[in-house]
Design brief:
Blueprint lengths: L2 E9 L4 H16 L10 E6 L10 E7 L2 H9 L1 H13 E10 L1
Antiparallel strand pairs: 1-3, 1-4, 2-3
Amino acid sequence: MTIRHVVTWKLAAEDAAARAEQAAEVARRLNALDGVVPQLLSISAGANAAYPETNWDVTLVADFASVADIDAYQVHPAHEEAAGYIRSVVASRVAVDFEV
């Protein structure tokens, strides 16, 4: 069993260019966790590429062997550093964890 962790953020900046820059930075910081956080089986994060007036700004898709591995990822120092930046620019967050 693999657990897919999907998180999407709406960023707080009202300016579309600022949101796009911040979304790219969020994606960069999350993708940099590949090979750093041992519990990650795979990770892909990206900034929205279309319909910025209606779509959310950035999404993460990451695979883990178990919910316990997601818990360990959440408290890993590298993830906590990325999450600190994300919290500083985010307005809303939604997440789903499902079996694949």
